[in-house]
Structures are given as structure tokens and as C-alpha cells.
Amino acid sequence: MNLQVAEDARYYGALDGLRALSVLAVVWNHARPMGLSAPLASRGYLGVDVFFVISGFLITMLLLREEQRHGNVRLGSFWARRALRLWPLWYGILITLSALFLFVLPNAAMAKPFWRDLPWNATYTSNFIVPGTFLALSWSLALEEQFYLVWPPIVARLRSAAAPVLLFLGGLSVALHLGLFDGLILEWFGRDGARNLALRATLLPFVLGCSLALAPGVLARLARPALALPWLLVLLGCAALPDSVAPGQIRLGAQVAAAGLVAACVGPREPRWLSVRPLRWIGERAYGVYLLHLFCLQLVTSFRPWNHGERDFTAFALVALVSLGAAGLSYRFIERPFLQLKDRFRRGTTGRR
């Protein structure tokens, strides 16, 4: 693996467009009409894997660019920028729910599992438990935060270990996806533990994203805007595979396609259809949409209670619109004030995360 920085470290508008499609897929996964039987309709969770590929690529690229320009990487400043981006909204949600269940709804059915899960959610370790509330999506936040904690020191201080670490984690992830350890996992961890481990097996998207940034020669061959639509069709084709195909194999194919799609978005020219302003607007607020859409789903269904078998396209449309509105407000009044502080911890790196 050629451990050099990808030459182009600019802001990639097409990646915001890709984030928009990915987060809308996740919203669809939770608010979709339940009567649909096509496999593709139930695979919106694959949008999370696309997020992970983007994270792996951008974080590695930015770290390498900082080292190239300044001779080293200030890890403390990197972690401060990550905290300013991710912590305010997440901890704001946890504090708000804590106050709600402490002072307003102490006897609510959700209160007990919320308090049980709170230490895990507050420390970004919820991927090690089977959560009991609708904050179950926090497993992905935990996995990404752990990536931010472990990977930057390897890039900045232990560069010779980067390739072996990626090869090991990539190989382990592929083996888990292919079910090579299913028997041992069920025996050691039980069914709930096996399900939780399946979530943690999504290390391959990070590996693929990091590898793109570390291998500019490979990236240059893949970074062609004309390849974006074919890669997207491959990803959708994997998602449309029948249920008779093992879920791990479906996810493996989709993750490889996601890496190809990300690579196609970061060349000298970007796919124009992913760089249009509405998609970029949604992509910039994708984090808020992701964290808030389950609350919006609860809100929408409380006004018009859809049963699982009756929920129609109207429910998804309303949840998506309300989520976009809530994320817009969150970005304006919660996230952006903290994002403006990031420049205090920046040394001229370019690109945006």
C-alpha cells in the first residue's frame, strides 16, 4: 500500500450529496411502508456503511494533509474538532431526555431502559450492549467515535503499522461477513451477542475509506465521475438481492460498491447530479437528520397513529420533511455555533468534515 496523501484535499460537494442519499435511506429504513415485500425496500440501513466509508476517507486524507503541510499532526486539535462537531447535539439529546425522564415522565415505560443504557450512550460504548430504547442507532456513533480515537494516532505516530492494521481488520470483517465464525460466535456470545457483533463487523467500510486515502494511485484510477452512477447501481443491486443470500454477503458487496462510489466523487471533477444544492444542503445537515429522525417518527405517528401494517408513503414523506426541518434548526442554533469554534484548532487544513 502506497502511504502517500491523496493530492486533492479540497471540499467535495458530491460527498455531501452522497451523505444526503445515505441519510434518506436510513430514514426510509425506519419509516418505510411496512407492506412492501421487495428486499430493496428493507435495506436502507446500508446507508450507514456509506457514511463509514466517507468518514474513513476524509479523516485519513485530512490527517495526511496536515502532516504534509506542517510536518506533524496535532492529535489534541484533531480530537477537539471532532468533539465540537459531534458532541453538542448528541449530549444535548441525552441531557434533554434525562431531564424529561427525571422530572416529567419518571414512570414512563422508556425511562428504565433509558437510564440503564445512559452510561453506555454517554461514553460512546453502546455498541457493546443490546440497547433497549429508540436510541439504538447510537451503536454507529460509538463505532465512529472509537474509530476517531484509535485510527489518528496510527496515521500520525505509527505509520508503518497502518497497512497491517487495515489488512487485519479488513480480513476479519470479510470473514465475519462470510459467516466463517458464526458457530463460535453463537456458542460464545448467544443470539443477542451475535446480533450485536454483526453490527460491529462493519469495520470494512472504514478500512476501505482509509485505504482510498492512503493509496492515491488506486484512487486516481477510480476517481472518475462517470463511474458514480454504475457504482450506485451495483450498490442498489446488492441491496436488491433476495433474502436467500446471507445478509453478510449482501453487506460485503454493498460496502465494496460504496467505496467505489465514494472514490468516484473525489476526483478533479465531481458527479454533477450529486453536487446539486438541495442534496448538498441535506448532506451538510445529515448528522442532525440521523440523530433526530426517530424522534420525528414518534412525533408524526403520535398525530396520526400508523400501525406497522398500515404505514404508507405519506408517513415516510412526513417523517423526512419534519426531520429535515428539525435538522435545519439544530444546525442553525446548536451545531453551527460550535462549528465556528473549530478554526481555533485548525492549522490551515482544507476540506470539510
From TrEMBL:
The keyword Transmembrane applies. The keyword ATP-binding does not apply. InterPro entries: Acyl_transf_3_dom, Acyltransferase_3. Keywords: Acyltransferase, Membrane, Transferase, Transmembrane, Transmembrane helix. GO terms for cellular component: membrane. Pfam families: Acyl_transf_3. The chain crosses the membrane at residues 43-64, 84-104, 124-143, 164-185, 197-219, 287-307, 313-334. GO terms for biological process: lipopolysaccharide biosynthetic process. The gene is oatA. Coiled coil: none annotated. This is O-acetyltransferase OatA. Residues 14-327 form the Acyltransferase domain. GO terms for molecular function: acyltransferase activity, transferring groups other than amino-acyl groups. Its EC number is 2.3.1.-.
